[in-house]
Amino acid sequence: MDQNQLLERVVDFTRMIEEAAAIADWPRVARLMERRSPLLESLTLPTSPAALQALRQVRASIDTLRARAQTARTELEVEFGASFKNVQAANAYVNVGML
Known about the structure:
Elements: H1 3-22, H2 26-42, H3 49-97
Subcellular location: Cytoplasm, Cytosol
Pfam families: FliT (PF05400)
Keywords: Bacterial flagellum biogenesis, Chaperone, Cytoplasm
């Protein structure tokens, strides 16, 4: 695979990753990123302006996705904490009811 084809595949994977992230399908995002990573590592610095711009867009997508994933993680941590407190409250209620 030549560098242009390689870059096209990276761009395709990036688009699929963005689509999966848009619907919060984080397991799919992770699988796609695992497939894209070796391709990214195989790329050499492009010389054409169009290829450089495509690579910049991939980089911007990676940065945006990292921020979205961190936000989703924080939201899940908050939800988990609230759920855990609800479980503790329900357990306390059950324990009091057994007295």
